Amino acid sequence: MIFMENKELVLAPVNPEILSEVVPGNVYYYDITTSTNQEAKLCKNVPDKSVFIAEEQTSGRGRLGRDWVSQRGYGIWMSIYLEPEISAEKISQLTIIAGISVSRAIFGSLIKWPNDVLLDGKKVSGILTEMVSDGKNSNKVIVGIGVNVNTEMFPEELSDKATSLFLHTGNFYDRTELAKNIVAEFFDLYEEFLKDGFSAIKDEYTKKCATLGREVFIISQNEEKIAKAVDISGDGELIIETDAGREIVNSGEVSVRGLLGYN
Ligand code: BT5
Predict the structure, then answer these.
(1) Phi and psi dihedrals of 104, rounded to 5?
(2) What is the atom index within ligand 1 of the atom nearest the CA of 123?
(3) What is the residue-level pLDDT of the chain in tens, covering all 263 positions?
(4) Edge to edge, what strands does the sheet with 140-148 contain?
(5) From ligand 1's centre to the CA of 220, what distance in Å?
């Protein structure tokens, strides 16, 4: 990965032409937008495998309507638009593909099931996958990826759970190059996944999944409980163990918090 000493270069805009070298569809570049996921949802006639990327998001979103802090020029705020011919239950596996892509591009990072990429147990990247229905039964999926690259400081409420590549290594990084690496990894994995399904990526995911082997706090609509995270299922769901035995939990249904620290 390319790191830089000159902060002016660091804050130079992302170069969409360089990014487009690894994007099969179009690259849509915004200086400022509400949210790249939102842009991808609203934009018409978008070719499959396109990428939306912005310098700044004014209402970046996490899951369940949570906010995603997207400071101008300091991170990668992008969404990948896909039209996969897969069943709706498999859409969450695209989140996992995105997580692996980011973790391949960020040396030493691990993944907190299902969608956070961590450095030192703090979140360096988050992923928000959304499905768009146009009433015609077609699968349109938007995989939003946020990466804190050169962020020097987070709002106080995030400082103990968020990190950036800069805070982790002391170096600034070229966002275009990093976005390009992530997108290239994503489309490689995506093709493998379309061909061979989740089994193509399960081993790598299991190795990188920081949640496994830990005590976790499972928060679902109906209950909250402590369990041990023991494995990943053949579909990317988390297998947990309690005194009552083993159980599979689905990312759409539960929130998982580690008992020791953030992960
Ligand atoms: C996520 O949600 O982690 C998904 C984040 C997806 C962001 C991308 S950016 C491009 C695209 N466009 C969008 O509008 N979104 C996507 P979740 O697991 O719900 O985590 C959200 C929580 O992470 C918040 O409630 C905060 O606690 C924390 N958070 C907010 N901003 C953060 C940041 N920049 N870095 C680390 N943690 C953050």
Answers:
(1) -65, -35
(2) 36
(3) 666 666 666 678 999 999 999 999 999 999 999 999 999 999 999 999 999 999 999 999 998 889 999 999 999 999 999 999 988 889 999 999 999 999 999 999 999 998 899 999 999 999 999 998 766 656 899 999 999 999 999 999 999 999 999 999 999 999 999 999 999 999 999 999 999 999 989 999 999 999 999 998 888 778 888 899 999 999 999 999 999 999 998 876 666 776 555 54
(4) 27-33, 50-57, 75-82, 140-148, 122-132, 116-119, 110-112
(5) 20
Question: What's the pTM value of the predicted model, to 2 decimals?
Answer: 0.94
216 CA → ligand 1 middle, Å: 20
**61 C-alpha vs ligand 1 centroid, how far in Å?**
6
Q: Whose CA is nearest to atom 23 of ligand 1?
A: 68
Q: Ligand 1 — pocket residues by CB below 6 A?
A: 35-37, 57, 60-63, 66-70, 77-79, 115-116, 123, 126-128, 144-146, 148, 158, 162
